[in-house]
Prior knowledge:
With 225 residues, the chain is an alpha/beta fold. It has helices at 35-50, 69-86, 95-107, 187-199, 215-224; strands at 4-8, 13-20, 23-30, 59-63, 90-93, 111-117, 123-131, 134-137, 142-144, 160-162, 178-180. β2 (13-20) and β3 (23-30) form a beta hairpin.
Amino acid sequence: MTTLLALDTATEACSVALLHDGRVLSHYEVIPRLHAQRLLPMIQTLLGEAGIALSAVDALAFGRGPGAFTGVRIAVGVVQGLAFALDRPVLPVSTLATIAQRAHREHGVDQVAVAIDARMDEVYWGCYRVQQGEMQLAGIEAVLPPEQVDLPRGSGGQWFGAGTGWGYGSRMALQPGAVDSALLPHSEDLLTLAGFAWQRGEAVDADQAQPIYLRDNVATPKVAR
């Protein structure tokens, strides 16, 4: 059976999860600014609980952003180092999708509008719908002011708001059925998404473990004006 290791440090939360012999183990802590110190010990603890060596891992999944610049870089650096050392492929997973998957798992919702506080009076934004247990992107991921967020074209039904960006909810035109603004990404849900990607053959080489910041792409045309 496939053994997958997942890690996420893109927000205040730091978490790791392991799929081995069909069983999922995970550790999750909300520890702002302590990710670099805690991540490797958490991985070692998890492997110890499973009774396996790191070499037993078939692929490594990580939260590729968007999120805190430093946090995303920590995840990329650790997963690249491990993947290169083990000669294993990697599975980059969206932070926004991970939050949507957690909302599906914990709240049972099928349509999730995810917003992460991006600072600078903006939010990271993405809308997701469940397809056979997997939260899939509807539209695009973007960074934009709260006033500019919108649902995908042709959207119907009830939406659930998830993520810290919903602290700006009073400035958004959308009215979701319910909101959980405290929801952060959890590697258990990242692992679920990575499992779908693994089955589709979407694993890539370690040097393709690149961060997705969104803001870099959006900022370029603004500077040119």
